[in-house]
Design brief:
3 helices; 7 strands; seven-stranded antiparallel β-sheet; globular; alpha+beta; about 170 residues
Length: about 170
């Protein structure tokens, strides 16, 4: 990841991409299966749908259980804020009006397959990152950079897992 000097007020983001040898409609069921996401992440431990939901739908909620050596353990509730089969799947963490993060998969047909982009934008809501910055405001840019770097690494591993899963199935 390249240094940007971003602060929390900038609503920093990072994105990773991969190409998958399958159509967006073949990629969609794997990308939108939130229970598979922990397999590629060193931080996300488990995910399950809430309120009787069994799959992705606009407004559906799910709970994620996380663990990190620096931040400890925590649980979040996410809300599906975008759900376009074969095109995009996104969720806002905690309060959808003021999320502590928004995550998004974008699927684009390209070269006979799919370009899959995975993006996270931090804020504007409060999170563990907010609390870390409040404890050490003089290190805000370094804290934000480190967190985005860690997230980017996990996101890359998640994309690799999704790519392998889809390409094995088609």
């Amino acid at each position: 990841m390249e240094w940007t000097g971003a602060r929390l007020a900038d609503r920093p983001a990072t994105e990773v991409r991969t190409w998958i040898a399958a159509t967006p409609h073949q990629v969609w069921p794997v990308v939108s299966d939130i229970e598979q996401l922990p397999g590629g992440s060193s931080e996300l431990r488990a995910v399950h749908w809430l309120d009787g939901a069994t799959g992705p739908a606009l407004g559906a909620r799910f709970r994620g259980h996380n663990s990190n050596d620096v931040l400890g353990e925590w649980t979040t509730t996410s809300h599906v804020v975008e759900c376009e089969p074969g095109r995009a799947f996104a969720w806002a963490v905690q309060d959808p009006a003021e999320p502590n993060a928004t995550w998004r998969f974008a699927l684009t047909p390209r070269d006979g397959g799919t370009e899959l982009a995975y993006r996270v934008r931090i804020g504007p809501g409060r999170s563990g990152l907010t609390m870390a910055v409040e404890r050490m405001p003089e290190k805000e840019q370094k804290i934000v950079f480190r967190r985005l770097s860690d997230l980017e690494e996990d996101m890359g591993a998640t994309l690799e897992l999704l790519k392998r899963t889809v390409e094995r199935a088609v």
